[in-house]
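Listing 4. Sequential folding, example run.
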Amino acid sequence: MATVSPLVPLPEFACVFAASVRAVLEELGLPLDVAAREATAIVEGTTFAKNDNRSLLGSVNDVSFHLQVGLEHARDGDLAALARVQRELNDMPHVRRSPAFPSEAVRLLLGPVGSAH
């Protein structure tokens, strides 16, 4: 799932990231209690570490590129453009993944049975 959040220093980043995740989950139609539970888990139980997985780094770079292109003509602070691009990223298929769309995968993982679109 693509989640865009401001980059702030630790430990504040966990709270900012959790709020961003919660907003995306709510936008994807997950129940509010599920979104809140996931955000709380991020704040209370996340440890950040260096990533040395080349495949994951490639995926993050790809998402970053699409984000930059999507925001190329947006004004600084344009939250509507940011939300639109984030939605587009979550509806972009991933190769060799089932389900291919991040939005569907999140709904299957966290939503009630039959909630995937």
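-- end of first protein; second protein begins --
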Amino acid sequence: MPNAPAPDRAMLSIRIPLELKRCLEVEAAAQRKSLTELCEDILTLGTKHVKLTPDDYRKIAQAIEAAIRERDAFLASRGSRARAARRNRDGSKKPV
């Protein structure tokens, strides 16, 4: 799936002051990084001291597996719709 997020990535949405956002954009440009890359670097440095437990890693693995299942189900349903659309264009019977 083009532009699909990797299953081991999560969306994080935060509200910050516009001035701080602009500072991040300027710094990202100066480092020739995307805003996402810069923020990931900053967050990684800020959480370096955090130690994850085996249970944390299990939860991460379960979330990745769920994301993969969800993506695969979406792709399978998308493929079914595409096949049905091709059949309909060919004059075949429409699916019920």
